[in-house]
From TrEMBL:
Signal peptide: none
Protein name: Cytochrome c oxidase assembly protein COX19
Main localization of the protein described in the UniProt heading: cytoplasm
Taxonomic path: Eukaryota, Metazoa, Spiralia, Lophotrochozoa, Platyhelminthes
One Pfam family matching this protein: CHCH
Record family assignment: Belongs to the COX19 family.
Protein's organism: Macrostomum lignano
Length: 82
């Protein structure tokens, strides 16, 4: 008999956004990913905005952005060099 040890996510579970309270932020982030060939670095400022919305709406625990992997440089979109 094979048994598996199930480990919960590091940050735990969080409520789904059933009422679409942060849908606009999520859609903006997804559009950015599509426009930038899924290059998350180009859209990190939008993911930060999404997390801020979730914290403000109590859809996740308030967390220091440094703990979520964001830094001061993540405030604005990165400039692409050609």
């Amino acid at each position: 008999m094979c048994t598996f040890l199930v480990k919960p996510p590091d940050k735990g579970s969080f409520p789904l956004d059933h009422y679409g309270e942060c849908k606009a932020e999520m859609v903006e982030y997804m559009r950015c990913l599509k426009a930038n060939n899924s290059d998350q670095a180009q859209c990190k400022h939008l993911s930060k905005r999404y997390f801020q919305c979730r914290m403000d709406k109590r859809l996740m625990l308030r967390e220091d952005f440094e703990q979520l992997g964001f830094h001061q440089a993540d405030q604005q979109p990165q400039k692409q060099s050609n």
